[in-house]
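Researcher: I need the complex structure. Ligand is benzoic acid. Inputs:
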Amino acid sequence: MSLQIGDVVPDFTAQTTEGEIHFHEWIDGSWCVLFSHPKNFTPVCTTELGYTAKLKPEFDKRGVKVIGLSCDPIDAHHKWALDIEETQGYAPNFPLIADADRTVANLYGMIHPNASDTLTVRSVFVIGPDKKVKLSLTYPASTGRNFDEVLRVIDSLQLTAKSQVATPVNWKQGEDVIIVPAVSDEEAKKKFPQGWKTLKPYLRVVAQPKA
Ligand code: BEZ
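Model: Output:
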């Protein structure tokens, strides 16, 4: 069975472009994004890694550590980084796991044998400070992921963790949010003294709480 939301992620030790890591220790109470690439020196992955490097300050701002994985050896990762910088304008500025024997890929269910016996799919795991899966995405090898969307989900998750609100369809930072059903009107009066709009008893809309 693949990893599901709420599961504690498996621990592992791995070689990365920034040295050996013990994953649970490396997370160290931060939020984390772990994402896999089918193979080094492939076009879609090259664009994804460049774009994620460009977004790194946004992940930093949210206290999120980023780590990639590709099932190739470490020297190939270092060579590929040069191509990524040359073609995308940004070299990876976060660790890339060298999972040549697919230990981590298998632990995290990143190989889907009916797609390929050897290549990982494009997995994304957003992991909370409690080391539990908060989000998992699985994309096919041919479709590049939207890392702006990964950031948007992190904003929503962090807001929920802090303020007991949920975010509606296509929500973006600064837009109205929803009071979660677990919060009674009585409790809501204390939490949101400025008031809210009740569209239905189960649909209460409130301005986004300040950070
Ligand atoms: C790519 O990253 O471009 C890619 C990788 C595996 C299969 C197809 C595309």
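Model: Summary of the prediction. The chain has two domains: 13-145, 163-206.
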